[in-house]
Write a structure and sequence with these properties.
The chain is of the alpha+beta class. It has one domain (about 25-180). About 45% of the residues lie in helices and about 15% in strands. The chain is built from 7 helices and 4 strands. Strands 1-2-3-4 form a 4-stranded antiparallel sheet. Strand 2 and strand 3 form a beta hairpin. Helix 1 (about 1-35) packs across helix 2, helix 1 packs across helix 6 (about 100-110) and helix 5 packs across helix 6. The radius of gyration is 21 Å and the shape is globular.
C-alpha cells in the first residue's frame, strides 16, 4: 500500500518537473496558435506588450545619439522632471505596431517579416493529416533555457540564416510571457 502511494507521488512529481521544463515551449506554441487564429485575448495573456514594444523600438528606431542629455531626474532638475512627466506620452512608431499586431506576430512566429508571409494553408481534416502537418511544420529551436528565462529561434523558411529570437520570461510557476523579440540583422552586401 505505501509503496503504491510512494510511486504515485513520484510519478506526480516527475510529471510536474516535466511540465515546468516544457512550459516555455507550450507558451511559444500557444503564441503561434493565438496569432494564427486572431485570438487577441489569448495574446494579451502571453505577451508583455510594453516590454516587447520597448525592445522593438530600440531595434527599429533611430539609434540614440551619444550627445543626447539624460532625462532630468527629480534630484538633479525637479522642474524639468515635472515638465517631462506632464508631457503627453508619445506613441510608439508605426513600424513597431506592425510587428506586435496579430498578423505581425503570426508572420514572425513562422519566420517571415510582418506582412510578407504566405497565407496559412487550410486546416487538415483527418487525424493522420493533422499529425503529418505537425511533423512537417517548422519547429523553433531552443537557444537558451533557464528557470526564469528561455529563448527560441525561428529561422526563415526561405533564408535559414535569417533568425528571429523570441525571449520568454517566467511570471508564475507555469506562466511564461513574451518579453522580447530580437529581429534578424540583415546581412549587408559586401563590395
Amino acid at each position: 500500500m505505501w509503496r503504491t502511494i510512494f510511486n504515485l507521488i513520484l510519478v506526480l512529481l516527475l510529471g510536474a518537473c516535466v511540465a515546468f521544463v516544457a512550459a516555455p515551449w507550450f507558451a511559444f506554441r500557444a503564441l503561434k496558435a493565438n496569432a494564427r487564429d486572431g485570438d487577441v485575448q489569448g495574446l494579451a495573456e502571453l505577451v508583455d506588450y510594453d516590454a516587447v514594444r520597448g525592445t522593438l523600438k530600440g531595434q527599429l528606431g533611430p539609434t540614440p545619439n551619444a550627445t543626447t542629455a539624460p532625462a532630468p531626474t527629480i534630484w538633479t532638475d525637479p522642474l524639468g522632471a515635472m515638465k517631462r512627466a506632464l508631457e503627453p506620452l508619445t506613441p510608439p512608431p508605426p513600424a513597431v505596431e506592425r510587428y506586435v499586431s496579430v498578423q505581425g506576430l503570426h508572420d514572425l512566429t513562422r519566420g517571415y517579416e510582418p506582412g510578407k508571409g504566405p497565407p496559412e494553408p487550410p486546416a487538415p481534416q483527418g487525424l493522420g493529416d493533422q499529425a503529418l502537418t505537425l511533423v512537417q511544420e517548422p519547429w523553433p529551436s531552443l537557444r537558451y533555457w533557464g528557470p526564469n528565462r528561455s529563448r527560441f529561434v525561428v529561422r526563415g523558411p526561405d533564408q535559414p540564416a535569417r533568425e528571429t529570437v523570441f525571449t520568454f520570461q517566467r511570471r508564475g510557476w507555469f506562466e511564461w510571457k513574451l518579453v522580447q523579440i530580437r529581429l534578424p540583422t540583415e546581412a549587408k552586401a559586401q563590395p
